[in-house]
Sequence to fold (671 residues):
Amino acid sequence: MSGIGWWGVPVAVLAGAIRVSTPFLFVSLGELVTEKSGRVNLGLEGTLVMGAMSGFAVAWLTGSPWLGVLAAALVGALLGVLHAAICSLPRVNPIAVGIAMMLFGTGLAFYLGKPFIEPKAPELPALDLGAWSTSPAIRSALKVNALFFIGVALAPALVWMLRNSGIGLVLRMVGDSEDAARAMGYSPRLVRLAATAFGGAMAGIGGSFLSLYYPGSWNEGLSSGQGITAVALVIFARWNPMGCLWASLLFGGAGALGPALQAIGVTGFYHLFNALPYMVTLLIMIISCSPDRTLAGAPGELSITR
Amino acid sequence: MRLVRLAEATAPPVLALLATVVAFALFLLAAGADPLQAYGLIYLGAFGTWFSWQNTLVRAAPLLLTALGMALPAQIGLIVIGAEGGFVAGGVAAIAAGLPLAALGLPAIFVLTGMALAGMATGAALVAACGALRHWRGVNETISSLLIAYISIAVCDQLVEGAMRDPASLNKPSTRSLPDALMLGTIPGTNIHLGLVLGLVFCVLAYVFVFHTTWGFAARVVGANARAGRLVGLPVGRLILIVTALAGMATGLAGMVEVAAVQGAASADLAVGYGYTGILVAFLARQNPLAVIPVAVLMGGLEASGGLLEQRLQLPDATITVLRGLLFIMLLASETLQGKLRLKLRPRAPRAAPEPVRPAQAGGA
Fold:
């Protein structure tokens, strides 16, 4: 950042908005689909960490980062299925199961991930959009990972799917009224299983981005609450995929402010800046929630807003 | 009859425990370790000798308090999982109060009381904030408590590395240390600090509060059905504030004990997960403050035995975390059996167990 001084801050925040937002984007889009079906999965924090670990391990063992992403998605889907299977038992509290899955996922990832802390896995490819610039800061800022584009394309695709496709209709129906879905002959249990598996797979991919691109290594301090923040982010986005995209970019930018300021020598409040995304989330939840009415856009069967 | 009911209520958690033992044995086999030997080592490390008992009880002490951070709000239907934040902030507040009090040359009892009050007030403020946000702004308390925990841990890290840093702590920032003479003492004849006694007292008081006071009864009414509570004119908002503040006091006191009895100073080492293990303890105890005591001892034992597994069987330190995660999942799945298992001894009663608390109600209404 030295070449452009204070201008490095907005550039780095922009770069961070793109780079840091990708895991938020994937986790929140996945959780959005799960929540649309009327189920909350708080365990995505554990799924994210498992995805980061398994993606890194497979990429390192096979030499292909994309196989790593695939493995992370599969592991995430499996954890999602486990969550959904336990939640489909009568009188089991989904929120509590989410907390348990959070602890289990992180524990399992730390256990299995021990041998992978040292090595360096192949990185995911990135597009060099800043090749025109001579400034290294701008060039590194505009080096955008392929997964980011996939996530960005997925948001409008999900909007379309939820609004126009048969799958989207069934999903929304199960989420808004179990009785209506059952009357139409759909099994809420199966639809939620599929929706939670999808959410888990997306969280797994989000985790693999952490270990395969940015920060780009596997260690036990890799995730610092991105999974749980993304769950809150869905509420903030009012269950709208495009809202998830903008919110993720905002959070990414907030998360990048600390490191950006540190790079130009403002080191005083490093930890506070790192906590900025959580403060933003909390503030937004305080402003946007209300005790008297359900949030606009919230699925009717969702326990977290009732 | 009570015994039969008690047996019916405890049967599902016991079944969950057995299922976990089997599942973890398979896990150990897959890891190439001998399950019998591992379980033997866990027993040895947790309860095998007087030394391991002391180790276990020292680890159980903070869990008694952090578990109350979850079990008390559960009475009123709230799932609060931010005990880790109250723990760390309570510890930092305690040392912030303790150092100037010590500098005044006050006797230990005053310094420690001041530290405990500071820790409890800080924890109470943090957890009561989640309750207030839930009641007056409709913010989901599970998410807000976790966010507040992350934020308060960040603020504490900032304080420890900035304003409160001991200039002499070079590589690992920490605050200045409490003089040895002012540290919280041990139970005579043991290595167990008095935090264990504080935890036990708090658990019993919490039990009396929940099951033998009008406030506790009112809180349980609101927890079972918030709308009914409001209809009969219960002050729901005030009850939520009281219960969450008590929960926060417990977590803050746990942090104070960790600083005053174990670490002597506040550093990043405070956030080692006692708050999160407390969640598991509370669920395993089915949110009953009295049941928290044996469960916390069991969990303390598991933690204490981790080192032995690592040394003797070369298993990673996360092995115990996996065991805890498995146990937690099995336990929640076993909730589905609650009230379904009937002992043949008595005629069919209209309802099965007295159902101490059903956390399933939380998040709703």
Remarks:
- Chain A is about 70% helix and 0% strand.
- The longest helix of chain A spans residues 8-36.
- Chain A touches chain B through 51 residues (CB under 8 Å).
